[in-house]
Amino acid sequence: MSKEVGITVSKNDNFSEWYTQVVIKTELVDYAPVKGLIVLRPDGYSIWESIKESLDKKLKETGHRNGFLPVLIPESLLAKEKEHFEGLNPEVFWVTQSGNSEIGDRLALRPTSETLAYSLFSKWIRSWRDLPLKINFWNSALRAEIKGTKPFLRTSEFLWQEGHTVHATKDEAEKEVADILELYKKTIEEELAVPVITGKKSEKDKFVGAVYTDTLESLMPDGKALQMGTSHFLGQNFSKPFDVKYLDENNVETFAWQTSWGVSWRLIGGMIMIHGDDKGLVLPPKVAPIQVVIIPIYYSNDEKENVLQTACQIKDSLSNNDIRVHLDDREQLTPGFKFNDWEMKGIPIRIEIGPKDIAKNQAVLVRRHNQTKTSIEMDSLTEKISSELKNIQKEMFDAAKKILDERVVKISQYQQFKEELDNGKMIDCSWCGNQTCEDKIKEETGADLRVIPSNNTKAETCIYCKNSGTTNVLFARGY
């Protein structure tokens, strides 16, 4: 990665290097001493906190409560759900020693918490009065990602939330799965300004051990799809091996119905890729650590006091209106350097204030997402900035949605499928439902069946085998 100041490659020319430079040079993350791990710096963690606070509020409003689980899981516990365990085993980190002593049962560093949580649920749940049980955990998970790592997108440890719920009926559990998917969609689109496509995973790509998996997918500028979150209907696949059952109102013992669901800091990576440009980050106002930066401009000590005093007044006014604002009064740097620095960090609004502006009772407002400038009367500055932040959030989502819509193309011929895939498109096509066709397409093109959309259209002939299609699906290469 280049050590020069600023982003030195174009997003269009070298997307991977551009992304790496952006996340490192804007001080969101740094690399840890252990391969595959990253350190989340304060600005990066602030974005995660914004996502967490928004999602946490929605979850609590819908009756979910937070808990905490330990990071170590006995191997004997993981093995109780054989299919689930075998699917995760290649990614598991194992603890085999304590101090200088070998331990008996190997301990897994939590890849996900189903087995651990459900062994406890079987103790906590006795009757229908204990249901529904709706618990969320904010924690980290560890999965061995040694090759092809990328900050936020693919690391060996990642921050996430994982929800686990237990219900008396199948219908209630399936409603939970759908409600959570909609809650995720609202958070991702309204907070991060990232448009998503919702639907189901194929049988091949569903969560190991689930009856089915609902997913949220988005398409990145390099033509690769990114899974933004998942919600799983587990049916009774875990309640039976883990003995999660209850006495119903007729005193009949019944196995419960379960769900699990989660999103991770991968959302931050998707947001960066969707909105960033050749200058660096472009942050949606709702999650930006700083929403407004004020740059005082003066060229002599005579001007300095008055400009700084006015800048402080603007800062106080914005802060009093719950706007996250920073006054950049670093004396050793030129205004031009500051402009570039804050543009790279993606701050939604920059306020420039100098002697000439003060004389006119105005300030200059610069929008990061479209680089437009406006002179604003000082008396209406706070009100105008509040309005602008809302406008920027909407404009960023609308622009991203327009691009996504344009890059999802409906295709009926396999040769055209391959051509449009190479052009970075997501392919809308018919599929017969046979995994053989899904596997062949993956083998020949590198594209996965990303999602069976919720708003499915009538199927025609399968894109690969030309037999009757059972459903329309979206294919894309993915992260």
Automatic annotation (TrEMBL):
Subcellular location per the Swiss-Prot or TrEMBL entry: Cytoplasm
GO terms, biological process: prolyl-tRNA aminoacylation
GO terms for MF: ATP binding; proline-tRNA ligase activity
- Where is this protein primarily located? cytoplasm
GO cellular component terms, alphabetically, are: aminoacyl-tRNA synthetase multienzyme complex; cytoplasm
Please give the PROSITE patterns that the UniProt record associates with this protein. AA_TRNA_LIGASE_II
Enzyme class per UniProt: ligase
InterPro entries tied to this protein? aa-tRNA-synt_IIb (IPR002314), aa-tRNA-synth_II (IPR006195), aa-tRNA-synth_II/BPL/LPL (IPR045864), Anticodon-bd (IPR004154), Anticodon-bd_dom_sf (IPR036621), Pro-tRNA-ligase_IIa (IPR002316), Pro-tRNA-ligase_IIa_arc-type (IPR004499), Pro-tRNA_ligase_II_C (IPR016061)
Q: Which Pfam families match?
A: HGTP_anticodon, ProRS-C_1, tRNA-synt_2b
Which residues belong to any copy of the Aminoacyl-transfer RNA synthetases class-II family profile domain?
36-284
Do the record's keywords include Cytoplasm?
A: yes
What this protein catalyses is: tRNA(Pro) + L-proline + ATP = L-prolyl-tRNA(Pro) + AMP + diphosphate
**Gene3D superfamilies named in the record:** Anticodon-binding domain, Bira Bifunctional Protein, Domain 2, C-terminal domain of ProRS
Say if the entry is tagged with keyword Aminoacyl-tRNA synthetase.
yes
Question: What keywords does the record list, in alphabetical order?
Answer: Aminoacyl-tRNA synthetase, ATP-binding, Cytoplasm, Ligase, Nucleotide-binding, Protein biosynthesis
Q: What is its EC number?
A: 6.1.1.15
Q: What is known of its domains?
A: Consists of three domains: the N-terminal catalytic domain, the anticodon-binding domain and the C-terminal extension.
Q: What task does this protein carry out? A: Catalyzes the attachment of proline to tRNA(Pro) in a two-step reaction: proline is first activated by ATP to form Pro-AMP and then transferred to the acceptor end of tRNA(Pro).
Q: How does it assemble?
A: Homodimer.
Please report which protein family the annotation says this sequence is part of. Answer: Belongs to the class-II aminoacyl-tRNA synthetase family. ProS type 3 subfamily.
Q: Which NCBIfam families match?
A: proS_fam_I
Name the UniProt record assigns to this protein: Proline--tRNA ligase
Organism the protein comes from: Marine Group I thaumarchaeote
Ranked from the top, the taxonomy reads:
Archaea, Nitrososphaerota, Marine Group I
